Each structure stands twice: as C-alpha cells, then as structure tokens.
Amino acid sequence: MMKKNDKGDKQTMKLNRRQFIKQVAITSAFATAGSIFPGVSFADWSKLTNNSGVISWQKSPCRFCGTGCGLLIGVSDGKAVAVKGDPNCSVNKGLCCMKGYHSVQALYGEDRITKAKVRRDGVMVEVPIQEALDIIAQKLQETRDKHGKDSVAIYGSGQWTIPDGYVASKLFKGCLGTNNVEANARLCMSSAVTGFMTSFGIDEPMGCYEDIDHANVFITWGNNMAEMHPVLYSRILANRKRRSNVQIIDFATRHTRTSQAADKSIMFKPQSDLAVANAICYEIVKNGWVNSNFVNKHVSFHKGKTNIGYGTEDHFAFTDQEEGISFEDYKAFLEDYTPEKVEKISGVPATDIKYMAALYGDPSLKVTSFWCMGMNQHTRGTWINNLVYNIHLLVGKISTPGNSPFSLTGQPSACGTVREVGTLTHALPHGVVMNEHDRQMAAEIWDVPLSNIDPKPTYHTVEMFRALDRGDIKFIWIQVTNPMVTMPNLKRYREGALKEDRFVVVSDVYPTPTTDVADVILPAAMWIEQEGMYGNSERRTQHFSQIVDPPGEAMSDTWQIIEIAKRLGFEKQFPWSEKDYIEKIWEEYRRFHAGPKHEMAPYKVLNERSGVQWPFVNGKETRWRFNPQHDPACTNGKDFHFYGQKDDRAWIWARPYEPAAESPDNEYNFWLNTGRVIEHWHTGSMTRRVPVLHNAVPSSYVEIHPEDAAELGVVNGEKVKIISRRGEITMPAQINGRGVPVRGMVFVPFFDESYLINEVTLDAFCPISKQPDYKKCAVRLEKA
Amino acid sequence: MPIFSYLALPKEGAGETMRTELSALDYCQVIPADNQDVVVLVTDTPDATTEERLQKNLRRLPSLQSLSLTFGYDEKE
User: Fold this and answer.
1) Could you tell me the residue range of the domain that residue A432 belongs to?
2) Can you give the residue range of the structural domain that contains B40?
3) Fewer CB within 10 Å of terminal CB in chain A, N or C?
4) pTM
5) What ipTM was predicted for this assembly?
6) What's the gap between Cα A707 and its chain centre?
7) What is the pLDDT along chain B (77 residues), one digit of tens a residue?
8) Is residue A267 part of a domain?
9) Is A479 known to be catalytic?
10) Looking at the partner chain, which of A22, A33, A39 has a beta carbon nearest the beta carbon of B3?
11) Can A341 be counted among the known catalytic residues?
12) Is the peptide bond before A615 cis (omega within 30 degrees of 0)?
C-alpha cells in the first residue's frame, strides 16, 4: 500500500518486524486487560495509528463465537496485523475477548492450505483448483446418476457465511433435488430451534443483548458464560458493578469461572434440570406468583408424547403429538415436582429451588435466563428449552427490557446461516420442505421447477453420517467444519468415511482429521479474505468486506459451490460474477424474508453499519419481538402478540423429567461431560495455530474432582484412562484447575485433535431436535 | 532490543498524572482505556542499557501504583 510522506512523495508503507511485534505486544495487553477489568475498552486506539504503523481499519464481526462482537481490523501492507473492538458495535462497545484480539493471527498459520489436493493411488497430490473442481463436479454427477439424487450430500456449519449456506441450499435442494443439506449447527443449537418453534411457533430470541443493561437477576442454566461468551459476561459483571441491585445465579453441573464470579452457585445432577425447572413452576403456582393477567391473555397449555427414546439406533424416527390441556391439568402435572421430591432427583436443596422460584416470582425483579450448550446438547433438549420458557411465561417476564429467556448460540452464523437460511434437511430459506406454499416460494425465487424440491426431509446430521457409513450416501462435501473431531461415537463415522466407495470433499483452511479422510481438499478463503455476512444470537446480521487477499488458490466457499453449479449446468440459477456476487445473492435471499416478521436490511445498510437487527422495518431495527411497543409485526391490539402460533398465544408445555440415555452404573460409574475453554475455538484448528492461545492451553486434559482423584490415586498431570462402551482415551488429569466437576463427573475439552474425546461419547440425541447430547454418558476411570 | 507491554495502574486519583508522566518518557507508547483507569504501556528500547534506565525511571514515577507485564520480547542486535 502507498501513502504520501510530509513532502508529498509516495513511499511504501510497510509493517516491519518490530512494528509487528509491537502489535502483538499491544494485543496481548488488551487481552489481559479484558480478562481482569470487565468491560474495559480501548476504542481511542485509532488515534495512535500513525505511531503503530497500521494504516487502515475496517469493520468485521469476529470470526469466532455467536456473540457477534464488532471488530476493527488493522491492515498494513496487505496483511491483517491488529484488532481492536469496534466502539460503534452495540454488541461489545469496543471490548473483545482474548480470541477476538488474536483472531487475525489465525489467518497466517504456517501450514495454511493454499492449493487443491486430490487423492491418487492413496496419496494426496497438489492440482490446480480448476482441475479439482472439475473432478468434484464429475464425481457428483456420476454418483447421482448411478445411485440416485439422495446419494450425494453437503455438510456445512454455523461458520458458513450467509451466502455460503444460501448457495448450498439452492444447489442441492433447488437444483439437485435432494434434501441432503445439513450443518454442524444441528450439533449445537437445533434444540433451541425446536424449543422456539414449539413454544412460540417462530425461531430466534425475542430479546436482545440490551436486556443485560436492564435485568436485576441473571440465571445461567448450565452455561459457562465467563469462558464461552466472555464479552457478554463482562457486560453482566460491569452492570453488577455499576448498579446495586444486580445478582448472578450460576445453575450448573460443574464449578467454572462463571461460578466463581456468580453471587450464588447451585449444582445439579446431570439431566435433572428438567425436574428443577418444573419444581420452580410448581413453587410459582403454589405461592400465587402466576401473572394471571398475562397468562389468561397470552398463554395456552399443552402436552406431548412421553418416553420418547434416544435415537441411538439407525433409522430412528419420532413425531411428537401435541394435545391441548387446561391450566388445572398443568397444575396437576406439577404435583410430581415439589421441591422436596426434586431435591432427591437433582441433589439441589429444596431451599435453593424455592430461592430460584422466588427470584422469578418477585414482580419487582427483572430476570434474564441465559443458556447455550448445557440445555441444547441434551437428549431432552427441546423439553428443557420449553420448561425455561414456561417459567418466564407463568410470571409474564418476557419480551420486555430485562425480562428475557435468552438462548445463546455458539457459532458466528448458526443463526444467520443455518436457522435463517435453513441449511438443515427439513428447512428452506423461508419455512420447511414439507409445506407446499414454502416450496412454491423457493421454486419461484430460485427459478427451478416446483417438482425439484422434495417434500420429504432426508437425514439429520447423525443420521447423515450413519447413511455415509451404511453406504446410502456415497458422496459428501464438507465445508468449514471438522466432523472427524466433533461427531459423537466418532470411530464409527470416521471408519464410514474411509470406506472404499465413499467420496469425501473437504473445503478448509488448515489440515484437520477431516481433511485426513478427504479424496479432494479445496483451499478455502477464511473470514475477511472474502466478503460475507454472519448472523449472531440476537438476530443481528453483520456484513464484512473482503479486507485481505486469500493465500494461493484459496477461494470462498460460496464461489466454490457456484463453480460446481455452473459445471453441472445451472448457469441460469447461478448467473453472478465474482465482482458483485455477494450483493446479488443477498438481495435474492432477502426476498424470502419480506414482511414485518422477518424483514432483513438491504445490502447497502448492512455495508454501512456494524450489524443490523431484524425484523428491519421502515428503516428501524426490532429490539423486543412480540411487544407492540417495539415490534411492528404485532397486530392484535393487545400488550403482547405471540403471532407465531396458530392461536396467537405462547405455549406452556407439560414436559416431564426423564433420565439420560446412559447414566453411570456399577461398571461405568462416572458421568462424562465435554465442552470448551476460552482460549480455543471449537476443534482448535484455527486457535491452536495462534501462538499466544496455543501456549495458554497447549493440550486437552480431564478435570476430576479432587476427592475422586485421591480415591483413584492420581495427582495433577498424571495420566488417566477414560473408558466407555464405545472407546477409550488416555490423557492428563487436571485437579482443582479452572473448572472443578462435582464428584462422580469428569469434564474434557474437545479442542485438541490429539485427544479425540468423541471416540468415547454417545450418539444419543433429542428425538425432536435430533441434537446429540455431548454432556452426558457413562465412563469409568483407570490410572494409566 | 527489547519490547515489552504492561498494564499500568495509577495511585488513587492520579490517573491523569500517570498518563502524562508515562507519555513524557522516551521509548514509551501509552494507550489509555477510555472507560477505566488503566493504561496499556508499550516500551521499545534500542539496547539493554537504555532498557535498564527506562525501568529505573518507571519505578520512580510517583503516580504509578503497579505495572503488570503482559508481553516480553528481546531481539538481539
């Protein structure tokens, strides 16, 4: 890049080695400050650009979690060299977490994939990317011709940009006629979707992050926000510091950094959150804390099937059957959940259950509940989502500032790409494949025959990889995700992918265990090396421009799909040029969401702002849905309008406690819980290539309660063998580290491909959402 | 040729003074937080002797409560 010096001469402005080291020094200081001083912001750093050697700043959402922090990316000499929080983004107001501050370093790992590779005689050899694309198109066509339209599949992620997911859905569902489209968000938030759909008839939170600035009580349900959504937790802590009437209740199965900062930490036995939620409702009803005015006007009561299974067998199928019930029926259902009875199931003292109920029931307190994987990765994930909504609905604490049941997402565009674009087998960009009107809309916008869109869903994620193992699927294209680390009961699915006549294409930025099973590897552009959009947890769509060039022959995932579509003869449906394809795709996609319930902002508006919340109606964003003071879709003339359900009401569900798919017994006597750490993003394929983050937590470990460790005769760092009915793994113990599980449970972070903990986990899932439970299976421990 | 970054905290009520005093020192870059009384200090000195002199000057600052190291790098000439 060029700039003029004081004399007006052009000179090359290069970032030299020392300047780069200074950027790293600054970034490290910011990250440290962020972890010590909640809410600290260094937004005025831009005034120092001339000193630091950084010559331009451009906005982007963060690459990592679903919070959707706004970043400013510092670019020098064509390279992204620095990051600071975007003060204009209302999500984070200038703050970042350690992953955000170091995010641009993830672009520049030494082993970045820059060229396409094809397996020939068992060996991966480099080929020009156009040749690799030819091979993929040919193989896809051959497979389809020989084995039928449902023998090919695409598997993406909540890290797909919105255009990535949109063109994938258009090609596979609209043009190729198969509903074999899934994304890894099935593994992280599909229970949130089915929770919303069953309780409200429409997806995504009614509230927004501004709830944090209004609530008096925050209850985290199995949610280690301090590590998983650190910027939002910092906002909560900053509110507690600033306001005198704020408290945090941590309701969890493991002591974490969230517990340490909470005012009260309540531990429950795995799976028993179902019983505790019902007990809270029992107390609310018993003590007369029901907001009768709200309930009578806006709520109806329902029940569904019980003893619904766990999906551990192939071809498992389940359809719920809704039945309306009365408030009196619901009261009778709750009689099984007195705090004293539930204490025996959950281990939570009855006094603590009553305490939580009193917080929800006190009309003077505004309460926000947060959850993420703890409730969603659950064999009754839909039910526990329903039950927390029940609590908020009984007391009428919903859809107003500070009163919010808030489901957080884990990936930057799980909402934007997977939930809104509909990159799941049953979904379309608007509605579902089973609905003829929705299919007609898609066929018209996509310019394909209606008959192309199959009205029958095929495989959800677990069943998709089972189908690959069985041979029902022969060709799979995996983009922006790493299922050979993340699939539960992993051994079966890795062996399935490696079978002789399977063809696996993987688009990624670094080598992973998933590229290890690939027949073709495509080098992908990463994050700000392409233009795109993400959609975060609070219905905020966030646009980013291409800020730096991708390395070598790396290409955006969107354009890779377009290249294949053109090779397969779908030029008419994919007519765009590389110059403006993202804008054109966005404006086509936006047609699916026209109307006040889901109107999306035009491209021009997205381009200008650090995110825009939908519904975006008449130039105005919607903060709180279902509330006519904020939501233009409300038309019933009342104080709330839950317009998603056919009866214009929110639904309370009688959902019972049922045990986990696999619980500890005499042979396998520990619970295994898996999850994440703040330093690493998902499977670590990016963050483990950032030296500061990698050095902070270089490898995985198993957290053991100190008394369990003493009984086992294990001290910190000694090796422990974890054995389940599916596999075993040996790894170092961590005792009294950052997290301490309760007795009888161990916890393992899954970021480290050297320790594939998912060879041990169980592929049981919620029968309604089909989301697996990574938090509960039975294992035994041996000192290694 | 060491480069260090620190978090600098002032004594009570001395935030503005500390920022001024740190900014006045050679080889120092000061990045104040805009919503809290904490400063990121980056030092970039040409040699060990200068680094030692700067360390002494930092320790003498009356407004400074504490200096916490967050990053260190020493490039040999």
Assistant:
1) 124-186+413-575
2) 2-74
3) N
4) 0.89
5) 0.97
6) 34
7) 889 999 999 999 999 999 999 999 999 999 999 888 999 999 999 998 999 999 999 999 999 998 988 888 876 54
8) yes
9) no
10) A22
11) no
12) yes
